[in-house]
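Appendix B, Record 12. Input sequence as logged:
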Amino acid sequence: MARPNYTRVVTPPPRPRPDSHWGWVAAAWFMFLPLAIVATIHAVKVDSSWTAGDYEGARRASADAQRYGRLGVIVGGSLIGLTVLLYCLYILVVVLLLRSLW
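Logged structural output:
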């Protein structure tokens, strides 16, 4: 009895694996947690999509991870800057009010 010929042609992926942008995700975790969670979900999807052969899905997940990671850093940095600015204004008002009372 002849053995069947099970030759499998393995084609390489069309492009290199996209970056998961874990640096932006980690920075977003320190700056703005809600967007960091979304960025983490998309960064994890990059590897799983790539392994499943969904190269376009991996590319989209990579772009989304970078987008939400950057947005988390920008929003978090803006909120920190606004907090520092308002705190400085509060101190300035308190000092000016105390001076006027003397």
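The chain has a mean pLDDT of 91.
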